[in-house]
Design goal:
The chain is α/β, with parallel strands linked by helices. The chain has 11 helices and 12 strands. The longest helix is centred in the last third of the chain and has 21 residues.
């Protein structure tokens, strides 16, 4: 097993030995059809509601003693920059710069460089369709980390992900100068969360990279679960997060930011178990304000 390679995102640490730091719980804001967005291409949104959502996540991270992040999503270059600007002015938590189009991702990266927040930013993400302009931009403007989508559709298993990283992503990362990316193991449907969990373990053991997945992606397809009601969906979502975290997941994308409160509680609970074992058995000094210290005090501060 290789040495694990934690990544520093601002004052937060993603990866490393399991339990030494908490996982990174990520929620999407300004996503497609987000209720706070009035015009996704003009960058018009309800600033009061957006600020309230950001403040909520900031508070949850402190209250539960876990690391959280914002997946800032954009569909237009100028609008994307507005979203990044607004979010970064209100938090020091990590920001994923996420867009479906390469030109939008590049615009966000260049804006982050201009604003001086590259150290807070994660480029999301490189994939098998990565364009040359993105590689060039990343070479000129290096964010704190780069996310790679290691999901080989022709070999959708842990070994396929490992091979894809070796054969496709490593030359690109070398050209950019990125030594430790964050690996996103793709999730196609609900059962494949288990395969992603195995992939997380394989990537950490083979390369030492922080790894995880967007386990929330499969829930829209789980129609039988949806018919049982929102409570059951949320319980399964929380179970997915805990399972992925216990498999070594460092990157834990729970979906829309509106679910942040429930997911913070679920992750905080898991981090108590992992943190105590890391402290007592591995003799790690846990970060200040870790969930192990916060979760037992929630009743006092409620």
């Amino acid at each position: 097993m290789v040495e694990v390679k934690p990544v520093q995102i601002g004052k937060y640490t993603v990866g490393g030995p399991l339990g030494s730091h908490t996982g990174l719980a990520v929620g999407s804001i300004f996503y497609d059809n987000h209720s706070i967005v009035e015009d996704a291409f003009a960058g018009v949104f309800n600033e009061e509601k957006a600020a309230a959502l950001i403040d909520r996540v900031n508070g949850l991270a402190v209250r539960y003693g876990i690391q959280m992040a914002f997946d800032v999503i954009g569909a237009d270059p100028d609008a994307f920059c507005k979203f990044i600007d607004f979010t970064s002015d209100r938090t020091d938590l990590p920001l994923l710069l996420n867009a479906t189009e390469a030109e939008v991702r590049v615009a966000g990266l260049e804006f982050a460089a201009k604003k001086g927040i590259l150290g807070q930013s994660i480029f999301a993400s490189l994939n098998e369709d990565t364009e040359d302009e993105e590689i060039e931009a990343l070479g000129n403007h290096k964010p704190a980390s780069i996310m790679i989508l290691a999901n080989d559709v022709t070999e959708p298993n842990p070994q396929g992900s490992v091979d894809l990283i070796k054969n496709y992503f490593h030359p690109i990362l070398k050209e950019i100068g990125c030594e430790s990316p964050i690996v996103d193991l793709g999730v196609m449907d609900a059962p494949s969360v288990g395969i992603a969990m195995r992939g997380i373990t394989a990537v950490r053991e083979e390369f030492g990279y922080p790894a995880g997945c967007a386990f929330s992606n499969c829930f829209s397809q789980w129609t039988g679960l949806s018919s049982l009601g929102r409570e059951h969906v949320n319980l399964s979502l929380a179970a997915s997060m805990i399972c992925c975290r216990m498999a070594g997941g460092d990157f834990l994308h729970y979906g829309i930011i509106e679910k942040s409160r429930m997911m913070a509680h679920a992750l905080g609970s898991a981090e108590v178990f992992l943190g105590f074992a890391a402290k007592e058995l591995d003799e790690y000094n846990l970060p200040e304000g870790h969930a192990l210290l916060k979760m037992f005090k929630l009743a006092e501060t409620a």
